[in-house]
Amino acid sequence: MIRYDEIIGYLGMFLLLLAFFLISTKKMKVNSYSYPLINLIAAFFLLVNTVTTQSWPTVVLNSFWLLISLVSLVKISIGVKNKKK
Fold first, then answer.
1. Could you give the CA distance from residue 56 to residue 70 in angstroms, rounded to a whole number?
2. Contact (CB, 8 A) for 79 and 43
3. Distances from the Cα of 61 to the Cαs of 2, 42, 43, 44, 67, in angstroms?
4. Mutual orientation of helices 34-52 and 4-24 as an angle, nearest 10°?
5. End-to-end distance of the chain based on CA atoms, in angstroms?
6. pLDDT at position 85, please?
7. Which residue of 52, 54, 72, 75 lies most exposed, with the fewest beta carbons within 10 A?
8. For the purposes of burial, counting CB atoms within 10 Å of the CB of 74, is it exposed (0-12), middle (13-18) or buried (19 or more)?
9. Which pLDDT tens digit goes with each residue over 21-39?
10. pTM to 2 decimals?
11. Is the CB of residue 12 less than 8 Å from the CB of residue 43?
């Protein structure tokens, strides 16, 4: 039987590794929208997986990862708006 929380967890893992790979190989810039957005989606997917498996330390880790990504997106958005003025 297919466990959707597992599929979501694997997608999150893939996205997290993809973001790390793209930054490490300089294919993506840290201050672009893409990096924190990919991290935000990855953290959300991993959070769904870890909540369903009740892996509480990892729930805390992914919650912070998600919040940090969200803050980064907001800061980038504010920076872009300020540059347009």
1. 21
2. no
3. 26, 12, 9, 11, 10
4. 150
5. 54
6. 65
7. 54
8. exposed
9. 999 999 999 889 999 999 9
10. 0.90
11. yes
Distances (CA, A) of 53 to 12, 33, 68: 15, 30, 23
Query: Which amino acid does the sequence have at 41?
Result: I
Q: How far is CA 17 from the centre of its chain?
A: 10
Residues counted in the chain: 85
Q: d(Cα 5, Cα 52) in Å, to the nearest integer?
A: 7
Q: Are 28 and 22 in contact (CB under 8 A)?
A: yes
